[in-house]
Structure prediction request, 664 residues.
Amino acid sequence: MDALFDSFIFVTIVKALVIFAVLMTTLAYLQWVERKVIAHVQVRPGPYRVGPHGLLQPLADVVKLITKEDLVPPYVNKVFYLMAPFLAITMALLSISVIPFGPAIQIGPVRTWMQMTDLNIGVLFILAVSSMGVYGIALAGWASNNKYSLLGGLRSSAQMISYELPMSLAIAAPLLISNTLSLRELVESQTGGFWHWNLVGGAQVISFFIFIIAAFAETNRVPFDLPEAENELVAGFHTEYSSMKFAAFFMAEYANMITVSAMAVLLFLGGWDAPWPSEYGSSFLPPLIFLFFGLVLLYHGKQAVRKWDKITFPAFGAIFLVIALIFLIPMVQGWLLPLFWFLAKTGAILFVFIWIRATLPRFRYDQLMSFTWKFLFPVAMLNLLVTALVVALRTK
Amino acid sequence: MDVILFLVFALIAVVAAINVVVQTHPISSALSLVGVMGSLAVLYLLLGAEFIAAAQVIVYAGAVMVLFVFVIMLLNAGAESKKGRSYMVQLLGVPLLIAFLGLAAFFVQSMYGKETVVFGGFQGGSPRDIGKALFTTYLLPFEVTSLLILIAIVGAIVLARKEID
Amino acid sequence: MLAAVPISWFLTLSAVLFSLGVAGFLFRRNIITVFMSIELMLNAVNLSFVTFSYHYKNVDGHLFTFFVMVVAAAEAAVGLAIILTVFKNRGTLNIDEIDSMKN
Prediction:
């Protein structure tokens, strides 16, 4: 029995299933977070009625999308029309498979990393998969046999491949400092506290900003979402899609967002590394955070104005207090703390994505293209040059 | 395990290549060519060429073929019409091709019969080794290709722009 | 069955892909499909290079493949620009109809 559990295939299948389940739930709730944040920025409550504070809204959306009529218009090119969302979501989920969420953990007889597989060309693999993601959108635009979709699809593909260039150059700079392409070793080269991270210790601030801007364009998010905006071009490349295929495009977009946020964390923010070493007490920060929010929820639960809040706020407060206590168990701390830091940093960058969506207007298409070719690409090249010079001079 | 991987992806590559040649609409040919390049990338991984496999997907399948797909979508020329070809050519062509390939396979087998490809048999294909060779032994070709890319960029822009009268 | 893949199988696959590329180049009449057959031939040659690099346990074959890819990318860019210009002037992509310097 031990031999079965320890075998590579079994462990990988279990990891794949766990990552898939967690990812699907996260995608649904990421949409809830986005709607709530945008709503509160615009001083309105957002999804509120389905479940406490709209927490069951993603479930309602999933049911709605599954039961909608799945219409395949007769004038589309059927093979490519059906292949396009499949390509988009396959490539989006494939890139999650090499992202490390934490260090090695030991569950019973099995010792494994919190990562589906570690390739020694991990960064190149993610770049390759995101290059292939262009096909899903281009095919969707073309197969719909509709001039708005075609224009939207072509604009979106041109935008994605144009922004791949500054993104690759911005990725190359911290790779020069960390001296490895494997994602696990990237994090290991940044351990020890925030002064070792590539953003601070390696002074890769310009690369970080170029990467984030290019990541906005790669995932078709505001301010670069002209190809799929609702008040331009009808709805862009997904005009003719309904129900599950439409849902597939949106899941692919959110999965791409998660991937680029995770990449930013791994390349620039030290992965699962705590901001200062645990000898100086950083392992008490997560339980303190959860304790604080649990107490806030309990306090507001006592003074709740609306009827349901009297029950749900204290319930969530109690859950947060229990989680804070779990963080103090030493046996669990080995893997829970790094996982918490990784998820917190990724969540912070995702919050920036959502925040910018609520705040900024969108670029016009020619402004977008001239921005990358005339500004981002030369700046990224100069940054790479300067980084290479400094690295070469320091390692004489 | 290597044998199964090789057979599956070689079969995909050959079927997709036949599809490139046989399909009437250029966009089906383009996507089949992307399939050929993807399966070739897996075969490169089997041969220990990890950087070349990644470069194949990033550069070839992810940029050059996207360019092809763009041009096909923009020109929107439609499917090719099948005009009659000589019947003798159609009858003799495929069997002669198979005979020629059989002969080539026999000669190759007799020259390189015993050696096998094992995954992990060649460890020198990592990006570090490629970088080392590229910037020391092959520095001149590297600089020349960068000039070549510059010429291609200038040429493409000049050829494809609208004439300003 | 076999324990490992003989190296001659890779070379035979390369020959098969190359001959399919030649067949497409000679028989198809759409200019873009002809161009794609050229790319198929280049890919077959790349497979050959990488196989021989494995045989001689040397990384030089990989570098040749790298240069072939760069040249193919440059050629695709310029070639497609030429195709766009030809289409603008002649209105057709059929190479049988673009056979005269007149017009």
